[in-house]
Design goal:
Chain A has 343 residues and is mainly alpha-helical. Chain A has helices at residues 7-13, 19-63, 86-92, 114-144, 150-162, 165-175, 181-186, 196-225, 228-236, 241-269, 273-278, 288-297, 301-325, 330-335, 339-342, and strands at 69-70, 77-78, 95-98, 101-104. In chain A, helix 4 runs antiparallel to helix 10, helix 8 packs across helix 10 and helix 12 (288-297) packs antiparallel against helix 13 (301-325). Chain B is mainly alpha-helical and 297 residues long. The chains are: A mainly alpha (343), B mainly alpha (297). At the A-B interface, helix 2, helix 4, helix 5, helix 6 and helix 7 of A face helix 1, helix 3, helix 4, helix 5 and helix 6 of B.
């Protein structure tokens, strides 16, 4: 009779559709779904733990190990042992251990290059991300327009993206060769990979060429979510193009844009291929990744482990700063599109 | 009054119309100019690679903007093993590593993505966050420990030494793209199949899999490309036997010491790139959808 179900009664008679019962069913449903989900997800978590967590734990343990070598006091061979933070101070404070004594690293030592490589890494990251965001935005705005030949534009934008970075590096290395086409076109005779600034510029240009299209596609996807009638309404109200851009496009595309910038920044911080192949890390183009590999090549695995752990922490901190201060919710933004439908 | 405004209208209208038309025309002209600049900027370096690949080695630095001194010698040189290059073997290696990495990633990724897209459970966002973090993980942090581990296991020079670390980036990528594809699918059909008497497994196999196939295929292409293009891990954890194409290109040597064999390198680069570019252009629409859906490289 009464449309409001009475909880007590409902529970006793098990009346279908009662609030209490629905909750119980929903709860049970979530429980069974949870069980199914953990069955489906567990293998992936295990695999990722083996391929990522296990090596990382190994690296962290190793970064606290001493190099095996001769004990300066006894003259006997010793197999490492606990090293405290000496592998970390080797990089951060640029301390080297020479026959048992801690001294500042000599200029030729890789330890002395730590801060300059941090500087190089961040310089590349900031420069490429700013250029790629600005140019990518421009590209995306053009790609969003309707005109004949748009298909050609979208197809050609994918070409640099599809080319492997190693090939990109070789290609631009050739373009920037002393007798190469870049010097011929601009009538210059710059030894591009021979000194710091041209080498850095060359690497940045190559990276911008290769990655801007990807940025543009991400921004384009954000632009296409904005309904066209918003612009129409603004146009009718006499809003100028610049105002439309600042007050409509930017705020609406912001979530997608920030996620794109976050991904690009984290990717740029681990840059390796381009500088390694184009300059081999010479002339102030040694990024953190290159420095780690150089240390491995010298067989100093303990300090290499410390440096790769530092690299990992630096990238993690940058991600944390992005998420905290820019309020990016990468998980939400990348999954929000289907949130309603997922249920 | 009405006639007054009407005459005024007819007076101003042609001007305004013409101006509007002019600005519209100018606007679309500008669009074409910008579009042309973008197309040229994107294609010109790639075009230069192909031109150089077909150019006689004696004219390496020739600035002629179109195909000149055309020869196939560079391709012969690229495939030749006389100077210690093994491009054919590298192509096979990259193919094997890429295909196996892709298959393993899909195998694990499909089930996890299904759970993440379809089921409700408490740790969902935690799992998504973990996978996202994994996809941002710097490859160099894996190289150091794995180099030693694989050296001890005597695995350097085996395919698993590459496939195992490759899964660390291919699997998160696969999951992110698949989750967004699965979310867009008409899952009501699964329910109807269940009502019509299908078991859950049957519904998945007969209804969902065929619908999901295009998305899975796109994901496979993107996972394969990411593994084909990888350089850092491959350069450290492979040897001459398992060298991949990116490493082969980077360390390509010519007959003359201290002289970069540019034309042969460009020929090798063209060979490595052309299949990829064709694949990307053929499946352009799906790839763009997959790229932007996953928002991960």
């Amino acid at each position: 009779m009464s449309t409001e179900p009475q909880p007590g009664l409902a529970a006793k008679t098990d009346q279908p559709g009662s609030g209490h019962d629905e909750k119980k069913v929903a709860h049970r449903k979530e429980a069974t779904q949870g069980r199914a989900a953990s069955m489906l997800i567990a293998p992936t978590i295990i695999v990722l733990s083996i391929v990522i967590l296990y090596p990382v734990v190994l690296a962290v343990i190793q970064s606290f190990q001493k190099d095996a070598g001769l004990d300066p006091k006894t003259g006997l061979f010793v197999a490492g042992g606990f090293a405290g933070f000496s592998n970390y101070t080797h990089w951060i404070l640029q301390q080297c251990t020479a026959s048992g004594v801690t001294v500042p690293c000599p200029p030729g030592n890789l330890g002395a290059q730590f801060w300059s490589s941090i500087g190089t890494t961040f310089f590349f990251a900031v420069a490429t991300v700013i250029l790629e965001t600005a140019l990518g935005f421009g590209m995306a705005v053009i790609m969003a327009r309707t005109f004949r030949g748009r298909g050609l534009l979208r197809a050609s934008v994918l070409v640099p993206w599809a080319i492997p970075t190693a090939v990109t590096a070789k290609l631009w290395f050739f373009i920037f060769a002393f007798e190469g086409i870049a010097n011929k076109i601009f009538g210059t005779s710059i030894l591009w990979t021979g000194s710091a600034n041209p080498a850095r510029a060359g690497i940045i240009i190559a990276d911008v060429w290769k990655t801007t299209p990807f940025m543009a596609l991400l921004i384009l996807a954000g632009l296409q979510i904005i309904p066209g009638d918003v612009y129409e309404a603004a146009k009718v109200d006499g809003v100028t193009a610049w105002q439309r851009f600042v007050h409509i496009t930017l705020p609406l595309v912001k979530p997608a844009l920030l996620v794109a910038i976050l991904f690009r920044t984290l990717d740029a911080l681990r840059m390796y291929d381009l500088p390694q192949i184009m300059t081999g890390g010479a002339n102030n183009t040694t990024t953190l990744s290159i420095l780690v590999v150089q240390e491995i090549r010298q067989g100093k695995f303990n300090s290499a482990s410390a440096l790769s752990t530092i690299t990992f922490i630096v990238i993690f901190l940058v991600a944390l700063i992005f998420v905290k201060f820019l309020g990016i919710n990468a998980v939400e933004t990348t999954t929000v599109s289907g949130k309603g439908k997922a249920k | 009054m009405t006639t007054a405004t009407a005459t005024q209208d007819t007076k101003t209208a042609p001007h305004a119309k013409r101006r509007a038309r002019n600005s519209k025309r100018w606007g679309s002209a500008r669009t074409y100019i910008f579009a042309a600049v973008i197309v040229i900027w994107c294609l010109l370096p790639a075009y230069w690679m192909v031109v150089t690949a077909f150019r006689d080695v004696g004219f390496t630095y020739d600035a002629t903007p179109f195909f000149s001194h055309v020869t196939l010698d560079n391709f012969r040189a690229a495939f030749s093993t006389d100077t210690g290059n093994h491009l054919t073997r590298a192509l096979i290696n990259s193919l094997i590593v890429g295909v196996i990495t892709t298959i393993i990633s899909l195998l694990f990724g499909i089930f996890t993505s299904y759970a993440l897209a379809r089921l409700n459970f408490r740790a969902k966002y935690l799992v998504l966050g973990f996978i996202l973090a994994a996809s941002m993980f710097p490859g160099v942090a894996l190289v150091t420990p794995l180099f030693q581990l694989f050296t001890n296991l005597n695995w350097i020079g085996t395919y698993q030494a590459l496939i195992i670390p490759y899964i660390s980036f291919a699997l998160p990528l696969t999951i992110y793209i698949l989750v967004s594809f699965f979310r867009e699918m008409p899952w009501e059909l699964e329910e109807s199949a269940r009502i019509d008497g299908c078991t859950k497994g049957q519904a998945f196999r007969k209804i969902i899999m065929p619908l999901a196939a295009p998305g899975i295929f796109t994901t496979a292409i993107l996972a394969f490309i990411s593994s084909w293009n990888e350089f850092l891990i491959a350069s450290q954890l492979s040897n001459a036997q398992t060298q991949t194409v990116t490493v082969a290109i980077a360390s390509f040597t010519g007959s003359q010491p201290h002289q970069e064999p540019y034309t042969a390198v460009m020929a090798a680069a063209t060979i490595v790139t052309i299949p990829l570019v064709i694949m990307v252009l053929v499946f352009q629409r799906q790839i763009v959808a997959g790229l932007t859906a996953g928002a991960v490289k």
